[in-house]
From TrEMBL:
PROSITE patterns: G_ENGB. It comes from Parachitinimonas caeni. The keyword Glycosyltransferase does not apply. The keyword NADP does not apply. This is Probable GTP-binding protein EngB. Residues 21-194 form the EngB-type G domain. It comes from the Bacteria. Necessary for normal cell division and for the maintenance of normal septation. Its cofactor is Mg(2+). It holds the Pfam family MMR_HSR1. Keywords: Cell cycle, Cell division, GTP-binding, Magnesium, Metal-binding, Nucleotide-binding, Septation.
C-alpha cells in the first residue's frame, strides 16, 4: 500500500515554512469529520495522526512522508465554532491561499461526515481548489453509521453534487470498519503517478 511507509515529517504554522521538495496530496475537512482517524487507518497505525478530543485546537499543518519525495498534508480542520474569530479568519485565509497557489499539490481529498456532507465551508474548499483544475476526491466518512440503503443514496447524491466539477470523484469510507481504504489508496496513487 501507498501508506505503508507513512511517517510523520514536520509541523508548520504558516505558508512560508512549507517544505519545497516533492509532490503532495492534501487532506481537508471540517473538524470532527474523521480526518485523523482516516489517516491512522490508512497508515494502519492507531496514533500517527492524533485523534483529537478537542476539535479545533490542532491549528497547524502536519506533513507526513510517503517516501520518494511524496507527502500527505493534514490541513487544519475547519468549521469548529469555538475558535475565536481572528484565528478562524487566519486559518481560512491560509487554507484558501494554500489550495489556490500550492504548486506541489497534485490533488485534494476532502473528508465529509457522510451524515451531513457538503456544508458551506466544504463547498468553499471545492470552489477555491477548482480554479487549479486539479482533481478532488470526496471521502464520505463514518459510513458504518448508515444503513446500506442510506449509504447508497448518500453516494449517489454526492455524485450529483460533484457533476459541476470536472474530475471530481467520491467514495464511502469507514475507519471503524476499515472499508474504503483500497479505493482511496488507488485514487491517490493515480494522482502521484500521472
Ligand atoms: P477529525 O477532527 O476530522 O480529525 O476527526 P477524528 O478522526 O478525530 O474523529 C472525530 C470523531 O469521529 C471521533 O470521536 C472518532 O472516533 C469518530 N470517528 C472517526 N471515524 C469514524 C468512523 O469511521 N466510524 C465511526 N462510527 N466513528 C468515527
Amino acid at each position: 500500500s501507498l501508506f505503508s511507509k507513512l511517517q510523520f515529517f514536520t509541523t508548520v504554522n504558516d505558508l512560508h515554512s512549507l517544505p519545497y521538495n516533492g509532490l503532495e496530496v492534501a487532506f481537508a475537512g471540517r473538524s470532527n469529520a474523521g480526518k485523523s482517524s482516516a489517516i491512522n487507518t490508512l497508515a494502519n497505525h492507531t496514533r500517527l495522526a492524533y485523534v483529537s478530543k478537542t476539535p479545533g485546537r490542532t491549528q497547524h499543518i502536519n506533513y507526513f512522508t510517503l517516501g520518494d519525495d511524496r507527502f500527505l498534508v493534514d490541513l487544519p480542520g475547519y468549521g469548529y465554532a469555538q475558535v475565536p474569530e481572528a484565528i478562524r479568519e487566519h486559518w481560512i485565509n491560509l487554507l484558501s491561499k494554500y489550495l489556490q497557489t500550492r504548486k506541489q499539490l497534485v490533488g485534494l481529498v476532502i473528508l465529509m461526515d457522510s451524515r451531513h456532507p457538503f456544508k458551506p465551508l466544504d463547498r468553499q474548499m471545492l470552489d477555491w481548489f477548482a480554479s487549479t483544475g486539479r482533481p478532488v476526491h470526496v471521502v464520505l466518512t463514518k459510513s458504518d453509521k448508515l444503513t446500506r440503503q442510506q449509504a447508497a443514496q448518500t453516494l449517489a447524491s454526492a455524485k450529483l453534487e460533484l457533476k459541476h466539477y470536472p474530475n471530481h470523484t467520491c467514495q464511502l469510507f469507514s475507519s471503524l470498519k476499515k472499508t474504503g481504504t483500497e479505493e482511496l489508496d488507488h485514487v491517490i496513487q493515480g494522482w502521484f503517478n500521472r
